[in-house]
Specification:
The structure is a single chain. By secondary structure, this protein is of the alpha/beta class. It folds into two domains: 2-150 and 312-343, Medium-chain alcohol dehydrogenases, catalytic domain (Quinone Oxidoreductase, Chain A, domain 1), CATH 3.90.180; 154-289, Rossmann fold (3-Layer(aba) Sandwich). 27% of the residues lie in helices and 23% in strands. Strands 3, 4, 5, 8, 9, 16 and 17 form a seven-stranded mixed sheet that branches. A six-stranded parallel sheet has the order 12-11-10-13-14-15, with helices on both faces. Helix 4 (151-164) packs across helix 5 and helix 4 crosses helix 10 (295-306). The longest helix has 14 residues, at 151-164. It is globular and about 60 Å long. The protein starts with a strand and ends with a strand. This is Enoyl reductase (ER) domain-containing protein. GO terms for molecular function: oxidoreductase activity; zinc ion binding. Residues 10-343 form the Enoyl reductase (ER) domain. Pfam families: ADH_N (PF08240), ADH_zinc_N (PF00107). Keywords: Metal-binding, Oxidoreductase, Zinc.
């Protein structure tokens, strides 16, 4: 099969022929219908420092963990009524399926978990990929492969909003209008936030937030974010989400937050940072970090998609094939107007 292969940090991905996946006894093999490019993959493809808290990618691995596709092969010991032709999405890991962590829906903490973008579990920037049956979910008939590939980033946003303890009527500032920031905006609106202001350095991305639940958008490159927020809300926001994840963005979120406010860091920063803890201390901020979601959140997102109660389509931008993929991946490393670029390898 063809896949976009990681060679070295800072180098473009190379589309080449790699072995087809074969299922272990409790696995499924999917023909990939769609796979979104995630900011985490963009960061990982540049990382060379294992001390930052994130693994360094091994050469010859395949990334891609936001995907949906069609079952083409079923492992011999798979439990449940899985059949070829089923349309599915899956969690980005395979756990043992038996331990307490797997059973509680937190298989990413399983001692034997296999994570995407490793030699043990190649990702879905490819024509086919392997998934665990325990970690797989059927797509409702109304949900496309592209929408199925959006379940994962939407679950990230849902987890972040849960960790914020958002209450109906809260005022919110989201720093960053990428896929995670817009997912957060969607859930803030879903759970009843009164004011949802989204800022971004790219005006088109900030404006896109208005179609995803934001009540106001601000072009942070040209406008004063806090002047805008205070004009709209009448005060500083009760909740701030850092959905950027670059050095300086956490301090910026601290500066924006109200006294006694809540701050959730959901943007992934893979570099050292400098901040002034006293500013957070004097404000008595509650600061939480949001990494990944329990399996129940993934299932909730898929159910709401199937019922038409949430709509991620405004986030989806270009849809490309493998021949265009390497260039598109590199282009996303620089500020641009895209939100979620989709690979359709087949």
């Amino acid at each position: 099969m063809k896949a976009a292969v990681f060679k070295a940090a800072g180098s473009p991905l190379v589309v080449e022929t790699v072995p087809d996946p074969t299922p272990e006894p409790s696995d499924l093999v999917l023909k990939v219908g769609a796979c979104g490019i995630c900011g985490t993959d963009l960061h990982m493809s540049e990382n060379t420092d294992a001390t930052v808290g994130w693994r360094v990618l091994p050469p010859e691995c395949v990334m891609g963990h936001e995907f949906a596709g069609e079952v083409v092969e079923v492992g011999r010991e798979v439990k449940g009524d899985w059949r070829t032709g089923d349309r599915v999405t899956a969690l980005p890991w395979i756990g043992c399926g038996e331990c307490a962590l797997c059973r509680s829906g937190r298989g990413f903490r399983c001692a034997s978990a296999k994570m995407r973008a490793s030699h043990k579990l190649p990702g879905a920037y490819a024509e086919y990929c392997r998934v665990g049956a325990f970690e797989s979910f059927r797509l409702p008939s109304t949900v496309s492969f592209q929408e199925g590939a959006m379940v994962e980033p939407l679950a990230v946003g849902l987890n972040a909003v849960r960790r914020a303890g958002l209450r109906p009527g809260d005022s919110v500032l989201i720093v960053g209008a990428g896929p995670v920031g817009l997912s957060v905006a969607l859930w803030c609106r879903f759970f009843g936030a009164q004011h949802i202001v989204v800022s971004d350095l790219v005006e088109v991305r900030a404006e896109r937030a208005l179609s995803m639940g934001a009540t106001s958008a601000v072009d942070a490159r040209h406008d004063d974010v806090m002047e805008h927020v205070e004009a709209v809300i009448g005060a500083r926001p009760e909740i701030v989400f850092d959905a950027v994840g670059v050095p300086g963005s956490l301090q910026l979120a601290i500066d924006y937050a109200a006294h006694d406010g809540r701050l959730v860091v959901v943007g992934l920063c893979m570099a050292g940072d400098h901040l002034f803890p006293t500013k957070a201390l004097v404000k008595e901020l509650d600061i939480r970090f949001a990494f990944i979601y329990p399996q129940a959140d993934f299932a909730t997102v898929l159910e709401l998609l199937g019922r038409g109660r949430i709509d991620p389509k405004p986030m989806i931008g270009d849809c490309i094939g493998l021949s265009e993929f390497s260039d598109a991946f590199e282009a996303l490393k620089q500020p641009n107007q895209q939100i979620k670029v989709m690979l359709e390898p087949n």
